[in-house]
Design brief:
CATH architecture of the largest domain: 3-Layer(aba) Sandwich
Distance between the termini: 44 Å
Mean pLDDT: 84
CATH superfamily of the largest domain: P-loop containing nucleotide triphosphate hydrolases
Radius of gyration: 22 Å
Largest sheet: 6 strands, mixed
CATH class of the largest domain: Alpha Beta
Number of helices: 8
Helix content: 25-40%
Oligomer: single chain
Order of helices and strands: HEEEEEEEEHEHEEHEEHHHH
Length: 332
Amino acid sequence: MNTNLKKETEEKLARVIKVSKNSYILSYSGLEIPAKLKGNFYEEDAQNLPVVGDYVKILYNENGDSTILSVCERKSFLKRPDQSKTGVMQYMVANVDYCFIVTSLNEDYSYNRIARYISVALDGGATPVVILTKSDLCKNVGRYIREVEEISDKARVHAISALYGIGLDELDGYMTPGTTICLMGSSGAGKSTLINALAGEELMRTSEIREDDDEGRHTTTFRKLIELKNGVSVIDTPGMREIGMADVKAGIDDTFSDILELESHCRFSDCRHETEPGCAVKAAVASGELSAERLMLYKNLGAENTRNYAMKKEVSKWAKAYKKINKRNMWD
């Protein structure tokens, strides 16, 4: 029996560490190998294509591109609307345990954006962990920690200074072998500096903040999974100053679970929390139990999610019809 042939035809397990259009880099048996998709993948919906963090079955080819045969079942899957393509979803990362939402304690800080990231993480099945960086530059760190804690009881929050090693010991509990952490946040928020601190070595190039607007220069232009020496996998992502809502209703509901609890006590099941009598949500605002700003954010994110999801479904419907027409024409 030809043992070399057997090795070529056996399915192997690998993990996606980088995606570039139709080309993939996989981690397999301690190596980084190139791979391409098996032909039938191109008939699949975009959400079924491999993303960074996915475990995939492959046919290994030591002399060229290996072939990705299938994507293994995901335990988490993070997505958002594609900012450049109306109605199209961007599928970001898979199999993430913790989503580190990195925001610096300067002009980059945004309550609204953090709530959006938390909703995306919860909807995708990852635990959101808000990392407030550059705490050495902030005079009132406690105020920001309390504010973030109020966004959702499902999110954890830590204030750190990676540059001076402040608060990094609080992150030790996440650094266990086999854990996957995804870092998301604006450019210049300190993601690369944090990765270097977690790794204990200079793995990522960092950039300076522009003094005129407190924004950072882009140092990461694609998603990439990095395997640290301690067995932890870290996925770095390009800076996202804006993150939209679409198809993440469950995540929004989890983020604002306090408002959902109040809604269950409204007199009408379809209460919009505006002028309806017997509205428990408006009563909570009036008593100070719930802030009007938090209710407005909940409403705005929900409306945006509904609008974008409807648009996505319409685009998806037309895309599927277009594929069917093209397929039919091929056989005519």
